């Protein structure tokens, strides 16, 4: 399984690019899965649902299954640490390409999504794992190739090439 990431500051457009990039990659016949880091707490469950009630009652893991999908929710309890990216990858079923959103400090190859109007510094000059930058305009002082943020086909082509999936 090949692993490649999108990173950048909050508000830069990582998720928007990811949502356009997945069909560009699956359209090439690749099986793609994703891992996304959320800095704040999140919940895919809702109060009043049976699965939520199971978690609130103290279950460590709850599996919800239907004819269309299944989900496993694991509650971190009693100060359990957040899983590392490596641990999360180990929980994903093998596919051709696992796209990672966020996890900017991890050492996999990635594209930085950067917009001048977000008013944050470019990460690429200090991070050798960033192999390109996707931006909506010029990127002053960029040490790696710059791709058009709105051209998901060009971004997909770079990922396919870097991962040897062509």
Could you give the topology of this structure?
Blueprint (H helix, E strand, L loop, with lengths): L1 E6 L6 H13 L5 E5 L13 H7 L4 E5 L4 E5 L10 H5 L7 E5 L8 E5 L15 E6 L10 E3 L3 H12 L3
Parallel strand pairs: 1-5, 1-6, 2-5, 6-7, 7-8
Antiparallel strand pairs: 3-4
Helix pairs in contact: 1-4
GO molecular function: GTP binding
InterPro entries: MGD_biosynthesis_adapter, MobB_dom, P-loop_NTPase
Pfam family, one: MobB
What is the CATH first-level class name? Alpha Beta
Strand adjacency order, main sheet: 2-5-1-6-7-8
Here the CATH topology equals Rossmann fold
Count of domain modules: 1
Provide the low-confidence segments as ranges: none
What Rg, in angstroms, do the CA atoms define? 18 Å
Q: Given the C-alpha coordinates, what overall shape results? A: globular
Q: What is the name of the CATH architecture?
A: 3-Layer(aba) Sandwich
Nearest-integer average pLDDT: 94
Instruction: Give the biggest beta sheet.
Output: 6 strands, parallel
In total, the number of strands is 8
Instruction: Write out the CATH superfamily name.
Output: P-loop containing nucleotide triphosphate hydrolases
List keywords for this structure.
single chain; 166 residues; alpha/beta; 6-stranded parallel β-sheet; 4 helices; 8 strands; globular
Concise account of the structure shown:
With 166 residues, the protein is α/β, with parallel strands linked by helices. Helices cover 22% and strands 24% of the residues.
Describe what this molecule looks like in 3D.
With 166 residues, the protein is an alpha/beta fold. The protein has one domain (2-42, 83-163): Rossmann fold. It is 22% helix and 24% strand. It has a 6-stranded parallel sheet with strand order 2-5-1-6-7-8, with helices on one face. The longest helix has 13 residues, at 14-26.
């Amino acid at each position: 399984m090949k692993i490649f990431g999108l990173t950048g500051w909050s508000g830069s457009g990582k998720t928007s690019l990811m949502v356009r990039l997945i069909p560009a990659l699956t359209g090439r016949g690749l099986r793609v899965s994703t891992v996304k880091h959320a800095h704040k707490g999140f919940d895919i469950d809702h109060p009043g649902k049976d699965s939520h009630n199971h978690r609130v009652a103290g279950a460590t893991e709850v599996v919800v299954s239907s004819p269309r999908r299944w989900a496993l929710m694991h509650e971190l309890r009693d100060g359990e640490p957040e899983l590392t990216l490596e641990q999360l990858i180990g929980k994903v079923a093998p596919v051709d390409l696992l796209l990672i959103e966020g996890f900017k400090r991890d050492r996999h190859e990635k594209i930085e999504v950067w917009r001048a109007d977000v008013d944050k510094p470019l990460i690429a000059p200090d991070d050798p794992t960033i192999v390109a930058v996707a931006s909506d305009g010029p990127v002053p002082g960029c040490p790696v190739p710059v791709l058009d943020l709105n051209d998901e086909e060009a971004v997909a082509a770079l990922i396919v090439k870097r991962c040897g999936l062509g």
